[in-house]
Amino acid sequence: MAKLFSIIVIIEMSILSFFNIKRNFEKRFENVEIRAFLKRNCDKEEVLKYVRNLSHVDYVEYMEKDEILSEFRRLFPDKEKYIKALEENPFPPSLKIYLEKESNPEVIKEVLSKLKEKDFLKDIVFNTEEYNRIWMNSKIFFWGFIVFLSLLFIIKSFMLWDVLQSRVNVIKNKLKVIEKFGGDSGKLKMCFILKNLSEFALLLIAGIGVCYFLSKYFLTKYFEIYFLFLPSLYYGLSFFFLCFLFLVISLRRRGV
Known about the structure:
It is a single chain. It is built from eight helices and four strands. By secondary structure, it is an alpha+beta fold. The protein folds into two domains: 2-26 and 146-253, no CATH class; 31-133, Alpha-Beta Plaits. Helix 1 (2-30) runs antiparallel to helix 6. The radius of gyration is 30 Å and the shape is elongated.
């Protein structure tokens, strides 16, 4: 049972790590921003109308020259001396173009291509290579972790099956003795099922409890891995169902 408890804790921690890292990736793709600098004397309303009507654009924020200068000063306070050396504001008006959530690289490429078709833009700022790299890493992480969790579930299933097989062999011998002397084997069988289910339930609660305290007092503080209730609940229910299923199958296979 100690090995089974260990694998329960490992799987639960893996699930928590998976969903926390996945959430961090999703945050990176929530508000994809493209910065577009406009040419001087272009028609603001015409530009906004065109960009807002592009596919996959969520919303557009127009920024005047003074707003961009204030933002630059806020982001780069150490560059203030260079700004003061200039006679006038060097920044042209710009657009902050926010795309729909989880826009893939093909969507980014399409939007950038549409923007470059027009001559009212002076420059477009977006790190396509970095975005593509992060997107690819997120997909590799997702499928890699799915394979890893699947292997852990298979190992857990074999361990659970092995534990139940040995227990069923013991109860089968006891039932033979009871039936031989005309005793009621039904009550013993029911007690056996309830006892095993309650043991596995306590084992599961203890395993998730350990993960809860680890995440609350250590992982959240140092690694930003938070305890997530719903994934833990689904994992617990699936484990309990698997225990019940394996228990029934084991009993039937042994003719109990």
